[in-house]
Amino acid sequence: MKKNTVNIKPGVSVLSAFRFLNYKTWFAMAEFVDNSVESFNKNQKLICDSDGSSTSLIVKIDIDRNSNRISIKDNAAGIAFKDFPRAFKTAAIPEDRTGLSEFGMGMKSAACWFAPKWTVRTTSIGDPIIRKVSFLMEQIVDDEIEELDIDDVVGDKQHHFTEIILEDIYHLPKGNTVKKLKDHLTDIYKVFIREGKLTLYLNQEELVPYETPILKAPFYKEKDGPTIEWKKDINFDFGENLSVTGFAALRETASTQRAGFSLFRRGRIVEGSADDGYRPEVIFKKPNSYIYQRLFGEFHLNGFNVSHSKDGFKWDENEEPFLELLRDHLDEEKMPLLKQAEGFRARVAKKKLETGAKNAVDDTAEEMETNLPTLLDGMSECVADEEPTSPLPKRPEVAAKTLKISHAGSDWIITIRLVDDPAESQWLAISDQAPEEKHRLEIRVSTSHPFMIRFAQVNEEALAALLRVAASLAIAEITARDAGVKQAGAIRRNVNEILLGAFSDHYIGGLDD
To answer: Number of C-alpha atoms within 13 angstroms, CB side, residue 378?
Structure first.
């Protein structure tokens, strides 16, 4: 008996090019889940009539590292035999494009991106035949194959499913990529999961969305005012059938990774999943801002188009007006989220504070007990320079700022520098040139000092805090000299010695004046 075949035109060269698409792993995987969601939604009545009214969609993704294989299986309606010509033909656009499957490319492009060999097994409700189509991409391309055999086996006409098996994966997700895949997929489908329409598994683990705790606190200018839950609905329309609904809120706990907006279309995230939140600078400012760490939200964008890979919106010229309207809504006086995010400072919970404080005291005391005796013996013999009037030697500079202030009828010109040079042995160095006429003060902090490497080199908040401490020490030393205190620089010199010897990861020897 002659086998059934399925035509995969318009040309195998298109399929071979899919391997080089700029997919992220989670958006490629989402193409398969999209098809499952779409199949279930369009055939829900038929499925519930067959399996019971409480039936919901289940999708199971399994990554087998030993066999370099991924399988994605669902209990949706399956691919009916009459739909095979459209399902396996590249860019065969469906008649109904209002759901998640609208370009006719998702399964084919994602499968070819993942693997050179992939198979689809499927059966639809009421059809006793399980059909299998296999794609061996190298053979298809080399032989310019335009029709593939369909393998049939007898099954149960009550069964319905689709299973996609990817083999010889180009880049098998493992380690941290698997965690990121889990986090992003959970976020991408959080609406369907929340509503009970989808149960999604990755390596037998059910994916459950994390619900971000919302800040409950008085307005920062009214510390004794009423407690407010900092969440507000967002709903606006800006013409041409474009509208936005959803909510914005402030996180209870600030986070540089998990804040940001999630932008949905048709119930599924397009931008802003997991640690890749949508954070336009016009609203969130710089990464060290409090808005960047506290503001989050979920917005459903209606009427907007997306890229064929559904990992970004095609804004055309609509992003700027969208952000302007959104910013206005976010900071309305009734509940000014942006002002609260910038002005509010949370107190750490007492139990957490006590735990952190105990660890900090224990660690500091242990290092002092181990390192201070030897350091103190050496420091007692040191004499500080009386006047730090010599210019500081040049060092590679990371950042600098000069400011001018007036004090006691005299101008102070102060330059703050952050330098990055292992040759700079002092954490804090200062130079005060021409102090009799006016203070020309240079305050220099070394980011390559072992103390900074350990505690603050890549942490902006810690770096800012330590820079303030350094500037305070420098100003205190200069004002002490002005008041007639002798050897005021001894404190700075000793601080440099102690930070290097007692609280850094290693001691690198004595310091030069």
So the answer is: 15
